[in-house]
Amino acid sequence: MQTIFRLDALRTCVADLKMRGKDQIGRSLALVPTMGAIHDGHLALVREARNHADLVAVSIFVNPRQFSANEDLDAYPRTFDADSALLAAEGVDLLWAPTLDQMYPAGYATNVSVSGVSEGACGASRPGHFDGVATVVCKLFHQVLPDIALFGEKDWQQLAVIRQMARDLDLTRPHVHAIIGVPIVREADGLALSSRNRYLSPEDRARAVALPQAMHRCVAVIEQGEAVPNALAALHVALLSAGFSTVDYAELRDSETLAPLVAIGPRPARLLVAARIGGTRLIDNMGLSANL
Ligand code: AMP
User: pTM of the prediction?
Assistant: First the structure.
């Protein structure tokens, strides 16, 4: 695995890797963007990337522009050596770990902002977050020039934002031919893997399982015909009584357009939730079958 910290070196490395096949024909490259603190959720993206491309690049960059002033930027786990070992063991070809000044040099002034799918849910509870995400992912696509890019369904709204941006800014051709969503990887008890889970005390970790459990119940009762507002209100109560301090949002949305829904219809729907426990903000989402 080649580890690169500077843009000029990245460009040479990518060109070299793509052309270094034994028969000297171009090889396809997949990009998996991350903020590090690598876990099995990230590694699932890397493994899926292998199914679609000859070469796999992973980026690690804790992007300050996607954190608000009151969020956990300084505390965000940074475990570069362990991350690097895990990625090398997975056979990753290129680790792109730009420094802050490589990504945002002095005088940097451009922002990518996606409307529509970025509104509400995490867009409302984390103002500016999706501008930061869209900006850094747009830059990563131009830096690495991948043929495909992979993102986790764990961040369902983020995936929608990136797909929208890629379409709108013509990034899907020539660079990124496909944006692939990878299903959520969960712990044995159902909690979605997240770099932020390591903030949880053992007691809060035990309580946090209430999130996927209450969401499963909510999905089941809606599918059985319960009115959506009632099911969401019950989910809210269940989370607070399980020890969550706040529910940032619990919403049913169209899986693709992310339009808010008050009832299930013929199109697939998604339950999206963000809630806080012991100061840690957890997000999760689950699909509902369409009501045909
Ligand atoms: P992050 O480092 O948290 O920005 O995540 C990097 C990528 O990994 C994003 O595309 C996430 O959606 C994805 N990811 C994080 N956790 C999981 C998970 N539990 N299952 C699947 N993908 C995940």
Answer: 0.96
Is 151 touching ligand 1 by the criterion CB < 6 Å? yes
Grouping H, G, I as helix, E, B as strand and the rest as coil, residue 292 is coil
| Catalytic residue ranges | 42
Question: Which superfamily is assigned to 2-182 in CATH?
Answer: HUPs (3.40.50.620)
- Segment 224-229 shows an average pLDDT of 97
Nearest of 226, 218, 229 to residue 286 by alpha carbon = 218
Tell me what pLDDT residue 26 has: 86
- For residues 70-96, one letter each, b for 16 or more C-beta atoms within 10 angstroms of the residue's C-beta and e for the rest, the string is eeeeeebbeeeeebbebbeebebbbbb
Gap from CA of 24 to ligand 1 centroid (Å):
34
Q: 79 or 173: whose pLDDT is higher? A: 79
Residue 152 near ligand 1, beta carbon < 6 Å: yes
Return the best residue to mutate from 31, 32, 34 for the ligand 1 pocket (most ligand atoms within 8 A of CB): 34
Q: Token pair for residue 284?
A: 């999760």
Estimate to the nearest angstrom the gap between the alpha carbon of 198 and the chain centroid: 17
Q: How far away, in angstroms, is 229 Cα from ligand 1 center?
A: 29
The answer to whether the CB of 118 falls within 8 A of the CB of 148 is no
- Rounded to the nearest angstrom, the distance between the alpha carbon of 154 and the centre of ligand 1 is 6
CA 167 to centroid of chain Cα atoms: 18
Which residue CA neighbors atom 11 of ligand 1 most closely? Answer: 152
Report the CATH fold assignment for 195-285: Pantoate--beta-alanine Ligase; Chain: A,domain 2 (3.30.1300)
